[in-house]
């Protein structure tokens, strides 16, 4: 069954994918904003809403309610796709077929209540909640250094995009968090919930009309004109490669290379770029795995990642600190090999097949399906998963060489010992 | 073929024993795009000392060897087996933990060809002096990666506090020094001891045909039945904890902590272990879960944040609970936990029933993903537990069981605090 798009009475888009193979129904609500000096505020909102609502005043009451709904999982996360900041609220409930009761209506009522009927006192959010969640957000921002593998990639991107909004961390910075109080945050919320784009995705064994009816009944909010979030600028001319080093108390060095892809998310060249990234570092068949790990024993991991919505390709690896020069040289050589068309049939076919498998696998997860369709919306492409796969199948080695000419090394980042 | 049903969650599983002694399980999942297979041996980092079947001498092996062996299995005389999986668009992987080494793949196409590859390569060791040496550099980087991982250090420091001599306190990958002693002969010795099909299990799930699976197993598994048994030698671990406080300094923003409780009610698997496992989970949820008074108090006092979590790990020969997260004052959190435990003298029926519903719901939900089904299946199988018994076992648990577990298990003198500090 294909995904069905509907409009709620207030104009919010509702997407429903009826599939009966799952044991759960997954509801994802996405609210989008532009990265800006409001980023810290936007990021704090879900934490405040999650603390208590008009009907469930405390976190404990909310949690008890979710436990009663057979351990429904309710989680939010704040992240970015390009320079668009997204707050995702996810509620996953067990399908009524496996229970003695149907909990869909209760669930939609619950998530609507959390998002739209916050706990208010003296024309502001609950003061203690705001104070506590501000502290928590600051702690989260400060604890980014704990996970070195992830942090080394984030630092590379930060340095690369220093003068661009994309360098803004998804939770904002500590100074901006400090400026927030229960009053200015509530003022911000009242505007935001009326004017920011909201998309709702429901996946599972549900009746489309019933879901629409329930959201119309409970997700009641007056909307004004909706903000248009501009597409993220992709192109950047690089005059000189930046070299950045951070020193920490670590035993392993983390080497990250940041490239500009100069490919827009909606362009057909995105597909050869996907395959390129696969050939370079998308699995055990890839050039990085074969050369950096297997041939030279330099690393346990050496792989690539694409940031589709900002036009970045990252190469990440964990290496012996003394091997910095050698690893850098071998990694760059792999990119040069691709540029000069040195791609074996095995590397090419394996990369294509791995991509097909991974896009096909999206069909087995409600949340991944929602994320896929959201990405299509944001890239203004209306592709289904099968469209995506047939686009990948059409890619040739020449297409990869062609798109590789657009790749530009921007920043080399190295996390090393003190 | 034997059929095993669970009517509540509407799943069934087929069981079949191959003449070599290999147990094969298939759980068909209609409509799923992905197929998943795991071929696992009951052999992990805890197996440091053993006697080979029909021999009498005790073999001592270097730490990290089970994990090293796992890495080396992917190497073939003709190259790397990854190549064959990649050509089929499949993604192959493996992991080693304390009790198990598991090889797996997931794919959306060419399933039966991939299944044959999996069975064949795990039955075909190829170790040379050269390929063993080469792996030491790669694994050294894996060890360093974990050395820099605060959560991993926190966890192993806690185990070091809980256990005096039990091998679970030793890092799964060993140390750079211990793996330097590994050579091809010792790898072959471990392989032939632990990789006999009678010590292994195959689990398959996805939209697959059970007869075709059986046919491939029959064609690929050649070994004959082995009669002797592997004798695994584990030291006698004292009931008392080793150290009540362990601390390490690392590059973190705020102290991380694990509070561990050593379980001495051990030595059995099967339904009895499953019942203890779920009962302990209910205890932990009531004590410190998201809907508990303790969670609310600690959160409002700014002593914990949303990283705070509870977990019980119950193996046949050891077990422990973890209450962990990050805090500006881990000692205060531990104190609050201990105080709360000593004040518990009854289990509220409302709490009890609600937590049961939650755990049941989460269990049903896990059947949405071929990965989580497979990983849970293997973990339970190694403890002689049938995963589909979960719903009947949880039904049987009473609030008296939970209270009793509180009284007998959660005690201050069983408790270790591990802290990683900035």
- Number of distinct beta strands of chain B: 17
CATH architecture of the largest domain in chain B: 2-Layer Sandwich
Q: Briefly, what CATH class of the largest domain in chain A? A: Alpha Beta
Strand content of chain B: 15-25%
Oligomeric state:
heterodimer
Could you name the CATH homologous superfamily of the largest domain in chain A? Metalloenzyme, LuxS/M16 peptidase-like
Helix/strand/pairing class of chain A, anyone?
alpha+beta
How far the N terminus sits from the C terminus of chain A, by CA atoms, comes to 56 Å
The overall number of domains of chain B is 2
CATH architecture of the largest domain in chain A: 2-Layer Sandwich
Strand order of the largest sheet of chain A: 1-2-8-3-5-4
Radius of gyration from the alpha-carbon trace of chain B, in angstroms:
22 Å
Radius of gyration of chain A: 23 Å
Question: Secondary-structure map with pairings?
Answer:
The complex is a heterodimer of chains A (418) and B (422).
Chain A: E1 4-7, E2 13-18, E3 24-34, H1 39-51, H2 59-68, E4 73-81, E5 84-94, H3 104-116, E6 120-121, E7 124-125, H4 127-142, H5 148-160, H6 174-178, H7 182-195, E8 198-204, H8 208-218, E9 242-248, E10 253-260, H9 270-281, H10 287-295, E11 299-307, E12 312-319, H11 324-339, H12 345-361, H13 366-378, H14 385-393, H15 397-404, E13 408-417
Chain B: E1 2-6, E2 11-17, E3 23-28, E4 35-41, E5 49-51, E6 58-60, H1 65-73, E7 75-76, E8 79-80, H2 82-87, E9 91-96, E10 101-107, H3 111-122, H4 129-147, H5 150-162, H6 176-179, H7 184-194, E11 200-206, H8 210-220, E12 231-232, E13 245-249, E14 256-262, H9 270-288, H10 293-300, E15 309-314, E16 319-326, H11 330-343, H12 349-365, H13 370-381, H14 390-396, H15 399-409, E17 415-421
Parallel strand pairs in B: 3-11, 13-17
Antiparallel strand pairs in B: 1-2, 2-3, 4-10, 4-11, 5-6, 5-12, 7-8, 9-10, 14-16, 14-17, 15-16
Helix pairs in contact in B: 3-8, 9-12, 9-14, 9-15
């Amino acid at each position: 069954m294909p995904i069905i798009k509907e409009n709620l009475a207030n104009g919010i888009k509702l997407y429903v994918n009826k599939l009966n193979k799952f044991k759960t129904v997954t509801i994802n609500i996405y609210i989008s904003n532009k990265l800006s000096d409001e980023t810290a505020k936007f990021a704090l909102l879900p934490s405040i809403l999650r603390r208590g609502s008009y009907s469930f005043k405390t976190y404990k009451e909310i949690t008890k309610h979710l436990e009663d709904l057979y351990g429904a999982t309710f989680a939010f996360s704040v992240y970015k796709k390009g320079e668009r900041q997204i707050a995702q609220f996810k509620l996953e409930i067990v399908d009524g077929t496996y229970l003695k009761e149907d909990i869909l209506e209760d669930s939609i009522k619950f998530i609507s209540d959390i998002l739209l009927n916050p706990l208010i006192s003296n024309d502001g959010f609950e003061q203690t909640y705001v104070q506590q969640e501000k502290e928590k957000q600051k702690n989260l921002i400060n604890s980014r250094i704990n996970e070195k593998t992830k942090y080394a990639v984030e630092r590379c991107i930060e340095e690369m995009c220093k003068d661009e909004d994309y360098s803004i961390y998804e939770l904002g910075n500590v100074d901006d968090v400090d400026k927030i109080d229960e009053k200015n945050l509530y003022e911000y919320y009242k505007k935001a919930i009326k004017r920011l784009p909201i998309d709702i995705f429901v996946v599972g064994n549900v009746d489309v009309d019933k879901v629409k009816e329930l959201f119309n009944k409970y997700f009641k909010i007056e909307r004004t004109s909706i903000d248009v979030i501009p597409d993220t600028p992709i192109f950047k001319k690089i005059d000189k490669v930046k070299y950045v080093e951070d020193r920490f108390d670590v035993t392993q060095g983390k080497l990250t290379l940041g490239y500009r892809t100069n490919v827009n998310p909606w362009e057909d060249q995105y597909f050869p770029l996907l395959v390129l990234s696969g050939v370079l570092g998308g699995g055990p068949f890839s050039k990085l795995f074969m050369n950096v790990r297997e041939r030279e024993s330099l690393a346990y991991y050496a792989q690539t990642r694409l940031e589709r919505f900002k036009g970045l390709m990252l190469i990440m690896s964990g290496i012996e600190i003394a091997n910095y020069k050698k690893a850098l040289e071998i990694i760059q050589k792999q990119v040069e090999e691709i540029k000069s068309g040195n791609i074996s049939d095995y590397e090419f076919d394996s990369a294509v097949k791995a991509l097909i498998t991974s896009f096909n696998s999206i069909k087995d997860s409600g949340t991944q399906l929602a994320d896929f369709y959201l990405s299509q919306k944001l890239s203004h492409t209306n592709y289904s998963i099968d469209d995506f796969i047939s686009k990948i199948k059409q890619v040739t080695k020449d297409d990869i060489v062609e798109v590789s000419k657009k790749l530009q090394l921007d920043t080399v980042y190295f996390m090393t010992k003190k | 073929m034997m059929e095993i049903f669970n009517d509540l969650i509407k799943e069934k599983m087929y069981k079949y024993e191959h003449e070599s002694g290999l147990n094969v399980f298939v759980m068909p999942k209609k409509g799923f795009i992905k197929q998943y297979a795991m071929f696992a041996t009951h052999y992990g980092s805890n197996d440091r000392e053993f006697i080979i079947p029909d021999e009498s001498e005790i073999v001592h092996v270097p730490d990290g060897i089970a994990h090293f062996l796992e890495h080396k299995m992917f190497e073939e005389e003709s190259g790397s087996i990854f190549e064959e999986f990649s050509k089929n668009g499949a993604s192959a992987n493996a992991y080693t933990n304390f009790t198990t080494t598991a090889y797996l793949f997931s794919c959306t196409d060419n399933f039966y060809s991939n299944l044959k590859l999996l069975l064949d390569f795990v039955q075909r060791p190829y170790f040379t002096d050269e390929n063993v040496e080469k792996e030491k550099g790669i694994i050294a980087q894996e060890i360093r990666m974990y050395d820099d991982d605060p959560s991993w250090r926190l966890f192993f420091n806690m185990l070091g506090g809980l256990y005096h001599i039990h091998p679970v306190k030793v890092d799964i990958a060993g140390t750079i020094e211990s793996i330097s002693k590994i050579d091809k002969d010792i790898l072959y010795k471990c392989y032939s001891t632990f990789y006999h099909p009678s010590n292994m299990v195959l689990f398959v799930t996805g939209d697959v045909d059970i007869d075709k699976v059986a046919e491939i197993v029959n064609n690929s598994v050649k070994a004959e039945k082995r009669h002797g048994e592997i004798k695994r030698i584990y030291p006698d671990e004292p009931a008392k904890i080793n150290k009540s406080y362990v601390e390490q300094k690392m590059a973190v923003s705020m102290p991380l902590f694990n509070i561990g409780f050593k379980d001495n009610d051990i030595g059995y698997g099967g339904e009895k272990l499953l019942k203890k496992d779920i009962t302990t989970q209910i205890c932990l949820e009531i004590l410190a879960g998201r809907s508990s008074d303790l969670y609310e108090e600690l959160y409002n006092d700014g002593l914990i944040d949303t990283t705070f979590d509870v977990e019980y790990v119950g193996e046949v020969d050891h077990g422990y609970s973890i209450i962990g997260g990050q805090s500006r004052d881990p000692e205060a959190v531990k104190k609050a936990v201990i105080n709360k435990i000593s004040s518990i003298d009854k289990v509220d029926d409302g709490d009890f029933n609600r937590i049961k519903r939650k755990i049941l719901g989460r269990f049903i939900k896990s059947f949405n993903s071929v990965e989580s089904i497979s990983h849970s299946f293997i973990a339970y199988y190694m403890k002689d537990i049938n995963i589909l018994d979960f719903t009947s076992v949880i039904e049987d648990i009473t609030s008296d069981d939970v209270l009793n577990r509180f009284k007998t298990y959660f005690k201050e003198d069983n408790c270790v605090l591990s802290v990683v500090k900035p």
